[in-house]
Known about the structure:
Elements: E1 2-6, H1 15-28, E2 33-37, H2 43-47, H3 59-62, E3 73-74, E4 80-83, H4 88-95, H5 105-116, E5 121-125, H6 132-140, E6 143-149, H7 152-170, E7 178-187, H8 191-204, E8 208-214, H9 217-221, H10 229-232, H11 237-252
Parallel strand pairs: 1-5, 1-6, 2-4, 2-5, 6-7, 7-8
Antiparallel strand pairs: 3-4
Helix pairs in contact: 1-11, 5-6
Amino acid sequence: MKIIAVANQKGGVGKTTTSVNLAACLAARGARILLIDLDPQANATSALGFPSAEGLSIYGPLTGHGTLAEKVIPTRWEHLWLIPGDLDLAGAEIEVARAAEHLTRLRAALQPLRDDAPFDFILLDCPPSLGILMTNALAAADELLIPLQCEYFALEGLSKISHVVQQVRDCGANPGLTIGGVLMTMFMRNNLATQVIAEVQAHFGDVIFQTVIPRSVRLAEAPSHGQPILEYEPGGLGTAAYKALAAEFLDRHPIAGAV
Length: 259
């Protein structure tokens, strides 16, 4: 079982869109997926059609009350499970920061799931900030998937998150953390987007996914209907892109039973 943090401290780059749609496309291929919504705004939760409600998130396990396994709920899609987000997570930013071993609380909470391995992949949808929830996700994950918008300022954000990854390694919270993939999102066919992709490829090489996610109105609409793009527009460009991403992801992380 691998734990993948989907993170970028910059908002509006397609992070939650990627978490939800990659999870759905991997599940459709037979991989057992747990999506954990770490954002107090609970956008990944609503994107899968679940209403926001208190007491459903990982807040309790992070603060020493209960287990993550108790928070797992099935979705209406086979092979896809969810731990929702809720507003309690905003309080976790303060409470966990004051607790002992505050950087590794999520890592410790996830250990029973690692031991039992009921899932093939756990995807951590991180909030768009460099706060305690994101750093806990980085300390818990095997690798980081970074969605990156095809624009100039995205390169600055990539530099910042790479620095945070190095800090998490150096402080001993997660020495084995790697950047497992950089995904270019919101692509439009223009010179700037092409230049940004070329610069990222020059710096990260094979880490960058060959799949590029296009800018799409349908991708933006799907969360308001509580549906992944695979269901909302089965024949659309967004669905084709995330299906291709899932295939590429499984090429890098092959598992038994996935098609």
